[in-house]
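Table S7 (text form). Paired inputs.
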Amino acid sequence: MDSPSTPQPAAFELLHPAVQRRLWDMQWTSLRPLQVSGIREILTTRRHVILAAPTAAGKTEAAFLPILSAIADEAEGSVRAIYVGPLKALINDQFQRLGDLCVHLQMPVHSWHGDIGASKKAKLIAEPGGVLLITPESIESLFVNRSSHLRKVFAGLRFIVIDELHTFLDNERGLHLRSLLTRLIAKTENPEGVRVVGLSATIGDLLVAKRYLAPNAP
């Protein structure tokens, strides 16, 4: 006779207590299906993940509720998660959303693009930690202007989130980003442990997207 299977814990129970507390503060009464799937996949497996769902399906939270839970006790010493967005306006919007989720975490959230002041960039280099929101072009700028600091800033990197993943598929900008991320991951202490999460509402060919996220194991 087969032994009874162990029931899966509720997705909410998998989250860090400080993240749970924030959801209570925000008066969330339930998680959306995509968020349940994202939490379980990110917190109970080691795979790369694509979260593909229509606009307003809660993709950002589906990725960052579990990611913030995973890095909650490692806020300082290195950037632990990167959010790559194709547009500065999108990064500015997500900066507010992620900052709101981090109220009880003491997790720094940084943004880096052409409109961010030099003092804020200098602070991140001097005291790396938490989450960094950045454009592909600004990653390139880091390699050009801050190359000697990259190992320190990203030594403990664990997650890379690529928003609007479809905009990077089958084009030069996407190839450039893939190259930059490969080089950045090589700067970390555990390159094999860095996981990539793609977000999109518009992916025509999932196999192409899988190969983009994980060329060696789509």
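Next pair, protein 2 of 2.
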Amino acid sequence: MALFLDLVEGPSLDARIRQGPPLDDAARVDIAIQMALGLQWAHAFGVVHQDVKPANVLVGRDGVVRVSDFGVAAALRRGAPTGEPTVTVAGMSRAWCSPEQHRGERVGPASDQWSWAASVLQLFVGDLTWDDGRDAPLALALHARRTKGAPGARAVLDVLRRCFREAPEDRFASMREAALRLVEIHRGLRGEPLPPR
């Protein structure tokens, strides 16, 4: 068995949010897209992260974003009745956890989607204004009232709103689907396609 590690020169997303300088909406959307595609890659290999949060996302000086710290990740079990792993409640981070994770239920990629949305919301708000992941939709509603004049930010909030649907099956079918919505938003903000990574 071999283990390969990247040396990422740059801060965590959590540090980037706290230390600034503030990012524009297009840069935030770019980070959100890269996070979503990183999670999609893990999900495609049957891995559910279970602890998605800004502290577990690295932002390289080259602009490449990496989802990190899969220490409490679980693999989807082939042939299991639900095909989903049992949540590692001890490892969850309360402010970003999905309702089903908070209840200690079996979780799948849709739970990571909720946590991703809470992380992206924190990126747009600029701070963590809630203590429990189940309160992230309320924080989104409060933030939406403040962003009435910013069409790009409003479009992103619509994507997050879908990720915050209570029933996992009512969220996006995959992180790739959420990422593709954001790619269109980014094109509208920048007027050009995303740079290749």
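The chain has a mean pLDDT of 87.
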